[in-house]
C-alpha cells in the first residue's frame, strides 16, 4: 500500500463558520483533498507539524495547542501552553522536537519553549522583544516578527522582522534553551522580509519580502561558530504583467528542493522557480493566477505533480496540475470551500 497523507488547514474563527482546524484526506494520485472533520481551536492562524509527523501544533488566541496525529489522520488533543504574550503568527521546531520557536507579529516577540517527551509543549525557556522603528505607518513601522527558524546546523535562530526590515540572528544554546542576539541582516528599506526557509543542504537561505515583492537568496556558513550570510540574488515574485498592488505572501520548496514556489496577494498568483543546487540561484519559470484571492499559503503535493493554494479572502483552496515540460499549471478540480483559511500543513500519516 502507498503512503497516506492528511492536510490540516488553520483558519480564523472570529468571522465565518470555521471551528479552527479543518482535517482533510489527501488524494495524491488525483491531486485533490476532501474534508474529514473540524477541530475546535480559537483563531488557528498557523499550524505546523513536527519533523517526524507525529504531532501537530496550532496557534490559538491564548497560546499553543498541541495534538497527537493518529494513524487515520484524526487529532488527539494533548494540551495548551501559554507564550506569555500576544497571539503568535508562526511556529517552528528543531529536528529532534525538543524546542519550539513562536513568532509574534503583534508584539514583536520571539518565544522559545521546551518540548515535553510526549510531544506536548512545555515551559518557556527564553524570549526576546524586538525594538526599532520602520518607515510605513503600522505595517512597516513597528516590530512585527513574522517567522523564526533555526539554521540547519541548529547553531543560530533567524527571526524575520517585517516591521523594521531586519532578520535578527541569535545564538541558540541547546542545553538551556536560551538565545543571545549576535547579528542582524539589514534588508532593503520598506522591503518587509516576511518568511525565510533554508535549502535542504543547509547552504542557502531564501527570504520572501512582502512589500518589495521579491525573493532574496543568501549563502550561509556557520562552520567557524559565527553566522555568515551573503546576499547572492534578488528576483521578482511577479511576472512581467501583474497587478499594480501586490504583497508577496507564501514561500515553499518543491518536494526535492529543486523548485521554489511563492505566492502573491493582489496579483493572486503563484510563481515557480528553478533552483540551482550548486549556486543557490533562482530562475523564474512561470507566474500564473490561482483562481482565488490572497493565497496565504501554497504547496506541492508528494510526487511533484500537483499544487494547491490556500486562498484567504475567497475562503477556498484551489488545486492545479503542474506541467513542467510546458511551464504552466492548470486547475483540474472545483475549489474546496474552507472559511478564512490561513495555512496548510500536509503530513505523511504514521502507520
Automatic annotation (TrEMBL):
PANTHER family: 6-PHOSPHOGLUCONOLACTONASE (PTHR30344:SF1), 6-PHOSPHOGLUCONOLACTONASE-RELATED (PTHR30344). This is Beta-propeller fold lactonase family protein. Pfam families: Lactonase (PF10282). It comes from Fusibacillus kribbianus. GO terms for molecular function: 6-phosphogluconolactonase activity. The lineage of its organism: Bacteria, Bacillati, Bacillota, Clostridia, Lachnospirales. Belongs to the cycloisomerase 2 family. One of its GO terms (cellular component) is cytosol. InterPro entries: Cycloisomerase_2, Haem_d1_sf, Lactonase_7-beta_prop, WD40/YVTN_repeat-like_dom_sf.
